[in-house]
Amino acid sequence: MNADSAPIRILVAATYPSLRAGLRAMLDSSPLLSVVGELGHAPERGEVDFSAVDVLVADVPDESSLRGHLKMAQAAVFLASDPATFAVLRGQPSPPRALLLQGASSDELVAAVLAVAAGLVVMDPAVAAAWDNFGAGGAGEAHPAPASPLTAREQAVLGLVALGLPNKTIALRLSISEHTVKFHVGAILGKLGAASRTEAVTLAVRSGLLPL
Q: CA–CA separation, 117 vs 163, rounded Å?
C-alpha cells in the first residue's frame, strides 16, 4: 500500500460498545486504515457485505464467538483474553489472519491489520508459545512453535521484506522511521538466526511464519 492507495477498510466486531469504541480509536490512529462499520456479534452469512471490507477486527470472548466469525472466511484479526480460545484453529488451513491477545498496543494492532492485508499470518508470542498444546483435548501430534516468535510489528516488516521492498518504502507503508525499520530487520535476523534478508524470508517460510 503506497501513500496514494485507499485506506484498508476495517469492520470492527465486539460485544460491548465500549470495546468497539476502543478498537476503533486504536485503528483510527493510522491514516492507512479506515473503520467502515461495527458489529456487536458474530454476523450471519449474508448479513454483512464483506466485499466492502478488507479486514475484520473482532474481539472473540470464547470459542463459539470465534467459530461464528470464521464462517465468513474473512481476512481477520482476532483478539482473545486466553490463548486457548484459538485452540479450535489447530490444524486448520491458515488464511490471512492475526491471533492477538487483549491488551495489544495500538501499534501492534495496526501492524497486525497491515500484515493480514498483505496476506500474512500473525501470532502473538504468547499464543505461539501455547500453540504446541492445542488440539482436540490437548492430544495429537505436537508441532513446535517457532523458538523465537516475532512480534506483530516484526511480522509486518518481514512481510514487506519478503516483497522485496527497501527499508525506505517499508517505513512509508508502516508509518514508521527508516531507523526503526532497520532496528526491526536486525531483530528479525537475530531471532531467525539469518545472515541476510533473503535467508530470513526463506527460514520464515519454512517455519510457517510466512505463507508460501
A: 13
